[in-house]
Amino acid sequence: MQTNEELLSQIDKMRKEKNAVILAHYYQVPEIQDIADFVGDSLQLSQKAAETNADIIVFAGVHFMAETAKILSPDKKVLLPDLEAGCSLADSCPPDDFKRFIEAHPGHKVVSYINCSAAVKTMSDVICTSSNAKMVVESFPQDEKLIFVPDKNLGAYINGQTGRNMVLWDGSCHVHNQLSDEKVIQLKMQNPDAKLIAHPECRGPVLALAEFIGSTAALLEYTRKDSCKRYIVATEGGIIHQMQKASPDKEFIVVPSDETCSCNDCPYMKMNTVQKLYLCLKNESPEILLDTAVIERAKEPIIRMLEISKAAKLIR
């Protein structure tokens, strides 16, 4: 049985030999984050998938993320270390049910959070991430009727930020939705000098208590630049690794998912291991395969999102 260090050495060797790039989400285990060519949130990873010159993309994340990489780079071989690494939020929006939902709301444009299946993306007018959701929604005229899917918490937050009244699909991320305002209040009372920072997938009462709300990447950047030395972090615990690397002099307290632990891990994200990453690259499987028609239709709203983000960056 090879040690993690030996496996990581083999992974590093194989990715060079096979011209492979390893993309990892912030919620992966630290060892995978550290060996990845790029670590980021959904928007950043989408941008990297669209830009890469690699022959193979190894996506250390969950299924919808690897699907997005395949949609943006259909000529590349896209691998996912564990095909069972799904997403509770994406699963909360079955395509057939969503099709009926759209039909029940004629005259509405569809804004879909990237945490959805390729099939749902094909029914969307534009995709967004938590980094650019407000920007994407504001790209529509104020009187445009919109459906927001699948995260009701993010949708409600964006409604509040934009003054919209988007129709919200009733879905949520179990990792963020289970964080309670009672636990947050308890942590704030125990740590009065700590700032609460939260991901907008959290429920409204938690967001109302937060000093800063932002995407995973935005939370990381905030803690890097902010002068405070202690933070209560209301999101998946994997981001703490990057926060500690960027700010070793600061303390980060994760809002726990329940009373039995001090962590808040996504079980799907943590299904990817160093062993699975090694086998995935060695065997070049499991591979993400999508129908050409699905790729072509799903790509349109993703490209629109990337264009909106690029335009906003140029304006700034």
UniProtKB/TrEMBL annotation:
Cofactor dependency: [4Fe-4S] cluster
Recorded metabolic or biological pathway in which this protein acts: Cofactor biosynthesis; NAD(+) biosynthesis; quinolinate from iminoaspartate: step 1/1
Compartments (UniProt record): Cytoplasm
One MF term in the entry's GO annotations: quinolinate synthetase A activity
InterPro entries (alphabetical): NadA (IPR003473), NadA_sf (IPR036094), Quinolinate_synth_type2 (IPR023066)
Swiss-Prot/TrEMBL catalytic activity: iminosuccinate + dihydroxyacetone phosphate = quinolinate + phosphate + 2 H2O + H(+)
Sorted UniProt keywords: 4Fe-4S, Cytoplasm, Iron, Iron-sulfur, Metal-binding, Pyridine nucleotide biosynthesis, Transferase
EC nos: 2.5.1.72
A Pfam family this chain is assigned to: NadA
Cellular component terms per the entry's GO annotation: cytosol
Residues annotated for iminosuccinate binding in this entry: H25, S42, Y113, I114, N115, S130, H199, P200, E201, T216
Residues annotated for [4Fe-4S] cluster binding in this entry: C87, C173, C266
Domain of life: Bacteria
Free-text remark on how the cofactor is bound: Binds 1 [4Fe-4S] cluster per subunit.
GO BP term, pick one: 'de novo' NAD+ biosynthetic process from L-aspartate
PANTHER family named in the record: QUINOLINATE SYNTHASE, CHLOROPLASTIC, QUINOLINATE SYNTHETASE A
Similarity remark: Belongs to the quinolinate synthase family. Type 2 subfamily.
Protein name from the UniProt record: Quinolinate synthase
Organism: Lentimicrobium saccharophilum
Primary gene name: nadA
